[in-house]
Write a structure and sequence with these properties.
homodimer; 351 residues; alpha/beta; 434 Repressor (Amino-terminal Domain); Rossmann fold; 3 domains; six-stranded parallel sheet; six-stranded mixed sheet; 14 strands; 41% helix; DNA-binding
Chain lengths: 351, 351
DNA sequence: CTGAAAGCGCTTACAG
DNA sequence: CTGAAAGCGCTTACAG
């Protein structure tokens, strides 16, 4: 059996290069950074020496001297949520162009893990931070001092006076709800995220306002915003509240969970239960039926949030009020008029 | 309008703490790292000083002295591919436990971006690297020297003699193909990934062997392994090859794209075209019909790959041969016997 | 246009 | 059990 172990000969430094080129270390530094005047001859000599000795710059040395690392943290709750994966991709593209590294950190939506990860990030002396706070986050404005540029994305947090980028959740959720009301639905279940998350609060507000304006009764349940959680939740609400003919999904995983739960109960979408999701996913476009959904502009949110961080890094003033990027309702085929089934109890259709 | 700019007062260092506690800097260091003998009294004094002056360790200083950063890179092609998102999550969990930071890098499946990102990672003097190489990667074993511990995940690369973690792709793909053959299908389209990717090569081999053993004709097409790419590809192959009654999807996004393409063509799954996917996704379990799929053990692959890096970091020997984690076929409802439609041209069903 | 000196924050030998 | 000294690799003033 062939085996390998971690190797590692001492690597070349600016000094090695300097010695090889017959110049000083800071001349090497000047050539590499492209700053200050260097004669063309010296420049060529140095570059030749760089390849000759196989020199690779050491970011750690540079960062120590510069007091800041050209790195921005992105602290989210779960990378397997496609919304955050797309957010990471959009943010990374902006930063890469500017020569900044993006460091991804997972909080698992846990308050202590969040603090721990933030402490880790802080130890690298990053230039900035993009943060989607954990549900019961204990972070304060003081905790975010020292990150220089800090910006909230998607979720906000009471008492954190930091710029933020969000969607027009109340309006978008209101529109989604009215789509169902207009189709004739009166008993519409809203399957939301964690009760105290700002995203839940804002989306619930839009839902309640629309439902109450139509003289209907709000039917909400809270979940951990995962598919399995939503699957259990929708089944429970169907059993405890008779006559539900429509549902609203908090995010893409929750919308998945609702469809799974409906299937568990032997209910069809949209014939038995109409559905509107919040946050699009590729499969929703060709699912039978294609799912009507509020498209969250995740790329735009990511780019804007990244730009705010860059502006703050550059010392430009940034508005402290939330920056709102509007979502749009994509009308597909998962909403139809309620059927007569709505009058029978769901348990009668179970096997 | 309230405005904020990036702040940042000079932060406390070990010296600040030392002065406050009336001890030396390296005593502070000893207390913080928990190494060597320190009297209980000194220890208490130092810890009090740490909170008093608001000290936060600087990883940059530590890394410079230690020559290695407690950081491992994970270089993948696209974080919005759920397989890689889950891989990141699994790997991160293992490393977090060991106090290692995971740094996510995107290559966009581009050879130059891959080199660029690797160079960036190298500048941080990381302790290791987990790599899913780009399709036309130009990396050599030499390029990976200096990363100490390097391990390939999911994809391998000819000429790279580095430990790797893969699935039993030929066997699993063979089994998936035989499921379709056994149901009576003879014209089975395999919608694969990029032609030169090791994953494509291995899965195609399993497909071809099974098809040829059954005396049928292989029908393969290559894609960029994204949903939109697969959507175009399946439509094209349906038009150029008459009588196709079944399809095999290379990964989750490709399986999505196949379903979208079938819908475009007015074809139903499974009545008109049976389907088997490679790599599971949550929505596949309750899609109508639930999709039969080869489940890739992504968490197990991630944990194993992470463990190999840890072993190499610890100087333990690691087998250079590929480490194979077996996938399993999940039989759901997207495979049925071919119908008579198979005798009509797909264009006749278009509107 | 180029170089000698100092220091970023930390930890590793080496002395007491 | 504790401290004075040196140095990790780089870049920033400061001189020539």
């Amino acid at each position: 059996m062939a085996t390998l172990t971690g190797g590692g000969e001492p690597s070349a430094t600016v000094k090695t290069v300097a010695a090889h080129a017959g110049v000083s270390a800071q001349t090497v530094s000047r050539v590499l950074r492209g700053t200050g005047y260097v004669s063309e001859e010296t420049r060529t000599k140095v570059l030749a020496a760089v390849t000759a000795v196989g020199y690779h710059p050491n970011a750690v040395g540079r960062s120590l001297r510069a007091a800041r690392t050209p790195m921005v943290g992105l602290l989210i709750t779960d990378i397997t949520n496609p919304f955050y994966a797309s957010l990471h991709k959009a943010v990374e593209a902006v930063f890469r162009e500017r020569g900044l590294t993006l460091m991804l950190l997972n909080s698992d939506d846990d308050r202590d893990t969040e603090r721990q990860q933030l402490e880790l990030l802080r130890s690298y002396r990053p230039s900035g931070l993009l943060l989607a706070p954990a549900v019961h986050s204990s972070l304060t404005t003081d905790d975010l001092a020292g990150f220089g540029a800090a910006v909230l994305v998607s979720r906000t947090l009471r008492g954190l006076s930091v710029p933020s980028v969000v969607t027009n959740e109340p309006e978008a959720m209101g529109e989604a709800t009215r789509t169902l009301l207009d189709a004739g639905h009166r008993r519409i279940a809203a399957v939301l995220g964690p009760q105290d998350a700002s995203t839940t609060v804002r989306r619930e507000a839009g839902y309640r306002e629309a439902v109450l304006a139509a003289g209907a009764e709000p039917l909400v349940c809270y979940t951990d915003q995962t598919g399995p959680g939503a699957r259990t939740a929708i089944r429970h609400v169907l059993h405890t509240h008779a006559g539900i003919t429509a549902a609203l999904g908090f995010n893409a995983p929750v919308t998945e969970g609702i469809l799974a739960g409906l299937r568990d109960e032997g209910l069809r979408c949209p014939q038995d239960v109409s559905l509107v999701g919040f946050t699009d996913a590729p499969w929703m476009a060709f699912y039978p039926p294609p799912i009507t959904v509020v498209r969250q502009p995740v790329e735009a949110m990511g780019r804007l949030a990244a730009q705010l961080v860059l502006d703050m890094v550059d010392g430009k003033p940034v508005a402290a009020e939330p920056h709102v990027v509007p979502g749009t309702l994509l009308r597909r085929e998962s909403v139809v008029a309620p059927s007569s089934r709505s009058l029978t109890s769901p348990s009668s259709t179970q096997r």
